[in-house]
Amino acid sequence: MSEEQENLPMALPPEPKPKPAPTLYLIVGIKIIKGVLLLLVALGVYSLAGQDLQDLFERFLRWVHLDPEGRFFTAVGERLDSLTSANVKKAALVPFLYGLFLFIGGTGLALRAKWAIWLAIGESAFFIPIEIYELVRHSVPYSETHHPIFAHPKTGLAILLAANIFIVWYLYKNRNRLFRHH
Q: What ranges do the domains of the chain cover?
């Protein structure tokens, strides 16, 4: 070995390329799509500030061919009439912050940032006790208006609970394999 070769720094082995993870990509897609949708909802709610909400609600009900004079819709209209512009702006803040949280977390997962996996596990695990509570809280009477897939009104919630449990389990179990290169 020549003297020049001895003074050159040793090349580090290339960083291992992350393996394809279709389930991770599905989780990323869901989180980013939910985040973008919530950001759009927040923008929509924010745009309602300063408008006559009761009038907008009544026009919407007429557009979908529902009777705005019904007891339920009248009560909703009265509640909307009591909202101030500041309250509407505050209400837009909740979906905005959660949407931003989901979008950043989903982007972090896509980039395989180590912090993002713990953020996703924590966010998904947070809702599991709430969903369990809602499932066992009390029974809801069967209604003929439900889609046949959702014969029982809590079927959707049970599917959501199962999805959250799967996400937490999958990310926790595969955290080292999916995020080892960081």
A: 21-112, 113-177
